[in-house]
Amino acid sequence: MSPDDYDQKAAALDSFEIPLSPFTKAVDLSDLKNANLAPPQWIIEGLMPRKHVTLLGGHGGAGKSLLALTWAAHVAHGLDWGGLEISPGKVLFVSLEDDGDLIKYRLAKIVEAFDIELGENLKVLDGTGEGHSLAVARLQDGVRAMRRTPAMDRLAEIASDYDVVMIDNSSDGFAGNENDRSEVRAFVKGMLGGMAAKNNQAVLLLAHIDKQAARGGAVGNNYSGSTAWHNSSRSRLALIVVDGCVELHQEKSNLGARMEVPIRLTWFLEGLLKPISMDRAAQSAMEELQLEEDADTLLGLIEVVISAGDDITAAQGGARTTLHQLKTYQEFPDSFNKKSGKARFERALTLLQREKRIVKVREKDANRNYKNCFRLGDA
């Protein structure tokens, strides 16, 4: 398609009139009890659903491209990953960031490390040249909106025969304002989500992590730009580094239970990622054991402080919280000083209260002002 043809096509879309009778499609609920409703279908159990877009965020060097390639190879072979069931299928990997030679080099190591046979089930498109933006912002009659490009049209045509489409990454495919909700929604839900629904396929979109989250190792807000990136995807994953370890977190899941325990990954064979534990039950048990140990450690510190005759504030906000106060003691554990230390401290404190090993009381101080303190509980 020539640039002139594309401009004419875009102009025709701009002049398209919205139907005058919205909300005319009602859902029939009369046979709800007897209806045979199909459950969500997953390419990767609980993580990557068909018919929807999954967002994988990660800052540079975290390994999101390697992880996506590893998933692509596992789906092509039909090999389970990280204790999660894989539905075998055909994968289209669209690389807008790394050239074909680098992709081949990484895939060669992946298939050798995991003993994988790709067959004809994986196709890689090198889109690192110019003209491969999938969506661009255009002005028409003074209104700015996102428009499909010839590259997006061609991708939709090629992708129709695939179970999974992986796009690396959003910053190269989306030539719009990442902070504009309407532009992001038009790209993620309109273009990519529409393609996924039409082809009954999963679309995995790789994206850069929020800059503040990348600096602080935060969990829960790991995407850059408008919240439409979060709202337009049905599963949102984040690959982050916590205390030197790479972890895969699921921060959103609309179609099933959210994965509460992150999957811990390790680097091996000169730059590949694999789960440390392939047994999710064992990993969950390990997390519970760490929580119990943290709670016992924190309780020991609280006993030291109370035995010294000091009150422990129960304030969770302001300049003097429980954490701030206990940090002033030399017995404060180093494990609570790491990047994930605050979260571990708060989980341990919550567990101690839930098990009534400590209780919150309201007392008067020497100035007859009320304050909330922690005391040792009967348990």
Mind sketching the topology for me?
Blueprint lengths: L2 H12 L27 E3 L3 E2 L3 E6 L5 H14 L13 E5 L4 H15 L7 E5 L8 E6 L2 E6 L1 H10 L4 E5 L1 H4 E2 L5 H19 L2 E6 L3 H6 L11 H4 L3 E8 L2 E9 L9 E6 L3 E4 L4 H28 L4 E2 L8 H5 L14 H14 L3 E7 L5 E7 L3
Parallel strand pairs: 3-10, 3-11, 4-5, 4-8, 6-9, 8-10
Antiparallel strand pairs: 1-2, 6-7, 11-12, 12-13, 13-14, 15-17, 16-17
Helix pairs in contact: 2-3, 9-11
Fold and architecture overview:
The chain has 379 residues and is α/β, with parallel strands linked by helices. The chain contains 11 helices and 17 strands. The strands form 4 sheets. It has a 9-stranded mixed beta sheet. A hairpin with a 2-residue loop joins strand 6 (135-140) and strand 7 (143-148). 32% of the residues are buried. The model is unreliable at 12-17 and 213-219 (pLDDT under 50).
Give me a quick take on this structure.
The chain has 379 residues and is an alpha/beta fold. Helices cover 35% and strands 23% of the residues. The strands form 4 sheets. A 9-stranded mixed beta sheet has the order 5-4-8-10-3-11-12-13-14. A 3-stranded mixed beta sheet has the order 7-6-9.
Give the % helix: 25-40%
Tell me, what's the shape? globular
List segments where confidence is low: pLDDT < 50 over at least 5 consecutive residues.
12-17, 213-219
End-to-end gap: 74 Å
Tally of separate helices: 11
Number of strands: 17
Give the biggest sheet.
9 strands, mixed
The helix-strand sequence is HEEEHEHEEEHEHEHEHHEEEEHEHHEE
Report the mean per-residue pLDDT as an integer: 86
Structural class: alpha/beta
Rg over alpha carbons? 25 Å
What fraction strand? 15-25%
State the strand order across the main sheet.
5-4-8-10-3-11-12-13-14
